[in-house]
Amino acid sequence: MRSILARQGNADEYGQVTNRPEEVPLERVDDAPVYASATTADVPLLVVDDLRVRFPTDDGQLQAVRGVSWEVKEREVLGIVGESGCGKSVSAMALLGLLPPTARISGSAKFRGQELLGVPDREIRSLRGRKIAMIFQDPMTSMNPVYTVGGQLAEAVRAHFEMSNKAAMLRAIEMLDLVGIPNAKARAKSYPHEFSGGMRQRAMIAMAIINNPDVIIADEPTTALDVTVQAQILETLQEVKEEVGAAIILITHDLGVIAGMADRVKVMYAGRIVESGTAEQIFDTPRMPYAAGLLGSIPSMEGASDVLTPILGTPPSLVNPPEGCPFVPRCPLAIDECHHDEPDLLSTDQPEHEAACIRWEHLATVEDPRLLFRTGDELVDAGIIDPELVSES
Ligand SMILES: Nc1ncnc2c1ncn2[C@@H]1O[C@H](COP(=O)(O)OP(=O)(O)OP(=O)(O)O)[C@@H](O)[C@H]1O
Ligand code: SF4
Ligand SMILES: [Mg+2]
Description:
This protein has 13 helices and 12 strands.
């Protein structure tokens, strides 16, 4: 993964870089960062339309992202959820010009009306880390091990603003303090390996907010952390979101992570969005069996749902995706018709709740969709499946 801080130079007492290589252009894109910029609710900030990403492989073209569209409004939290390999990271990295040159990208992604795809790298660089910041899963790969944490944060400011080393370091310390690093002034002099996993992730959040961005893309920000630290990091993210006034795109394979945080949710499967709705709709009344399956595999204290039920099987190959619904082999509701065409996102019985499932109406009649991935007899007993209708596959 490419680091936005992969720079060389001399360092001061904080390990802050004091000279820069010539190929890193310095540009002042705005006035000095301030908190809580005035924003208008409900204005689309970032609009992604029919995003497609392919990678050439020895076996053929791997269709990592197959026509994804979404938008995020000012200060909104958009959750993007799906199993490993469904295209979450690739779709986010495409927006920021972080994919390798072999990637074939099409579609559109506009930030405040400005196209991000296919524009010169220099233009994207001026937005990346400034207007749109990204927090990666593993801070160790995103931080430079040879510079101090404070030095790297200060450098992130100076990449976008003309500012003295001292002022940039003061801001770095302020940010470390804001994200809950104790004794921030002293800890700014530490190297990334001297921080715990949770502290490193806090430092990454500090790095993401240091330039007061409009959008923060957090890609699996808590996956590498234990459950208690996960909760603390999510709380910190929520707090800084309020403080900075940014929108957040929260990418995760774990629906539990976005519970209580996301306003709207996009569920991804095999490179596409297969369900879209408010967090409440997705959690309480899923209309696509896959989302119901994700719900059944997170802990719940209510009724029978407290028994975890994983979705068996694996997603299809993205080199030769199947013709019908890509979820057929794993779906307890699959019928023969599901093999024919890949369903588009269909309107459901709820406003702005869409599902790529021809049987969403049947799912709507199921009392507890979390039970959907229980085994045969339990499903029949619960009235979820009619054995007569179930496909042989
Ligand atoms: N540089 C690349 N070259 C070829 N294929 C790639 C490349 N990067 C990603 N892929 C493939 O694209 C698909 C989507 O990958 P992506 O990293 O977006 O998944 P993800 O949803 O973020 O999964 P995870 O939860 O594991 O992070 C996967 O099949 C992956 O193997
Ligand atoms: S279209 Fe068919 S296979 Fe696909 S999710 Fe719906 S019921 Fe299952
Ligand atoms: Mg990923």
